[in-house]
Amino acid sequence: MVADIFRDATVGQLFNYFSNGTILPYPEERSDFTVPARFLPSQTPTIIADESDDVQKPEPESQKSKEEVLVTETETSREITLDENEGLGDLEAQKINDDPYLVTWYGVDDPENPKNWSSKKRAFVGFCVTWMTFTSYVGSAIYIAAIPGIMEQFHVGLTYAELGLTLYVFAYGLGPMFLSPLQELPKLGRNTIYMCSMALFIIFQIPTFVAPNFQTILAFRFFTGFFCSPALATGGASMGDMYPVSELAMLLALWAEGVNAGPIVGPIIGGFAAQAKGWKWPFYELIWLSSFSFVFLMLCLPETYEPTILHRRARRLRKLTGNQQLTSQGERDAKEQHLGLVFKDALLKPIILATEPVVLFCNIFIGLVYAIFYLWYEAFPLVFTGIYHFNLGESGLPFLGFLVNSILGFFIYIAYLKYHFQPRMMKAMAAGKPSSPETLLELGLIASITIPLSLFWFGFTSRASIHWIVPIIGASFYLFGIFFNFQSVLIYISSAYPAYAASVLASNALFRSTAASVFPLFGRFFFQNLGLGGGSGLLAGISIVLMPVYYALIRWGHILRRRSKYASG
Description:
Shape: globular
InterPro entries: MFS (IPR011701), MFS_dom (IPR020846), MFS_trans_sf (IPR036259)
Pfam family, one: MFS_1
Region (Disordered): 46-78
Structural class: mainly alpha
Largest sheet: 2 strands, parallel
Oligomer: single chain
Strand content: under 5%
Transmembrane segments: 123-146, 158-179, 191-211, 217-237, 249-274, 286-305, 358-377, 397-419, 440-460, 466-484, 489-511, 531-553
Distance between the termini: 43 Å
Helix content: 55-70%
Organism: Lentinula lateritia
């Protein structure tokens, strides 16, 4: 397992490529590999389904390709029988018999197929993807600790200084619109984009702590946010490459822990560093963390995208056999696509789908929930520094309340799936009445109650006469709302628009990141003018107003989907 992981990771791929396959070889590059007869060059490869079919005669011995020496004597016939496809699913075997030069898995238990990897290997790769996502998200909130020092050194106001957070968050919502389509190209795959973008993410961090002026910091905060975005946008897709749909919800919940932990841990590690060493040290910590992650992932993160894995297999087989007709399905599909059209579709489709009533409400609701989450970065200093007199390092510790409830929420969600949702789905399918996608929203609606509860609790208990632990506990309940709603809404829109899942998720990411990037700019003045109680009460009221609309979507969402030309009926 370890050797395969290293071989399929980026560094292993480079060793294999420059050694011409002698270092870390694939099966097709080993001397004992037997080429399936159907892959050898032939003018008219013959397909035999059974003895009653008409059979074409094999070509004369003199016309045989020299590569046939690689085939054992029992396989020298160019005829392709169903026995050759033993171990494949019926549909896969039929595709091969219809097109013998189509390169696919060697069988249903092909070890190169990510869905066939051992549970330990998939768990390790899942950890790598989650760690990569965590590293990217830390970069947003770690900046908070640097703001006081930046204001002092560059003589800028609070709102202007907070643009460093705003631009990063906006950029990682914008980046997937341009970078995610590249991951769908078989020649590139997920890892090429992950590693190239992470390298640029690290490089563009350097100017943030050597910048001669604040404008340079802002420019490169945007670029770092842009190039960290692939992990945030398609980390879940990497998990989907390895696990069946029946297990995916649980694995996405685990991946979401990396999403939640990043913005929570960032202010904690950044705060103590900035207090002890100055405002540049949070940036030092970020580049140390991301550099370690880059080296670790270069060595240990294998490619998981099926079209890319099969594209590389087809390339090795063409080299081995000399048969240039051997291609994977992904290669054939890519030939029909122009890169410009791919980007046009990736940029326009999310905007078009955002006008769908179902998608529009989901974007507004998740955008509000996510934007309020980033308002905590403005409210916490007012409360814990202004009222309770925490120092810069201590002011990040209240975020630990979020982390505790994020972990607790994960276990509640797993129990909900295992003991309620999945049995309910199986019972409905057994009765021949599969549940609608709207059932996925029920948990999110229930959890939405914790959003106004948390806001009221925090806003009206943040006072010197009440112990500081009380508003921390109140604020921590917000994580239940954001965690369960993210899981419910994002899986729902993917299920409601299965043919356009990537586009609706990109639309949601752009919308929520834009909202979250704007709210911190007025957050401090919002709470100062309305008061902590008044400001929190207003946000809680908006959340309550949206809850009946949420219920209406559960109740009548199927009608909206039937009227849509994009959604599933």
